[in-house]
Amino acid sequence: MAGRAESCHHLVSRYFHMTVRCLKKTGTEHWWLQRHLKDPFVKAAKQQHYRCRSAFKLLEIDDKFHILRPGFSVLDCGAAPGAWSQVAVERVNALGTDPAVPTGFILGIDLLRISPLEGAVFLSEADVADPSTLRTIQGLLPAEKVDVILSDMAPNATGIKELDHQKVISLCLGLLDVSRSILKPKGTMLCKVWDGHESRLLENRLKEQFQDVRSIKPQASRKDSAESYYLARLYKGR
Length: 238
Description:
Shape: globular
CATH architecture: 3-Layer(aba) Sandwich
CATH class: Alpha Beta
Low-confidence stretches: 1-7, 9-25
Order of helices and strands: HHHHHEHEEHEHEHEE
């Protein structure tokens, strides 16, 4: 199971420290940096102290569908650099900031290292598909199961569209198998996919286990990106 190929902050650091001469030599990298600098979500993430622009994808989805509620337990898969966990900490009241509502719990996991975040527990350099990791997750959860599984996981891209699509579908299917052990009845799963012919296979598998399944492309997902998200709600359980 793979986490995000590179964290947003790692990419920013990498490109900002390139020399001008190097940027002139690599047109693709120069284009990436220029797009990144002009991106309104990048600017908003910096202003609002989110670790990555991807926070706004989850914020938009949650504003519309209310999948994160005070008191909920959440597993954030592919959590690095931690932006989705930041949103989840706020929305489920993981810090107990509001004494009038229940206090939630956030557990993030990634193959990459995740910098500490107040209100969240992180398992860095860990594979959610590994049976020993699953046991560790269950031991950390307050009730061994979660209300919500979030996944912004992506494989290390090869540049071959169909192969990359198959890899991300495999990640989602693997997570769906994991959900059998840790997702509460009527729970929610949100997972990232890349466009391709096997998306329907994943959708059908989700519909077998959830009462409500829909595809979403948040505004923060770039228009030229192949990514979208499946939101599966009301887990049927065993």
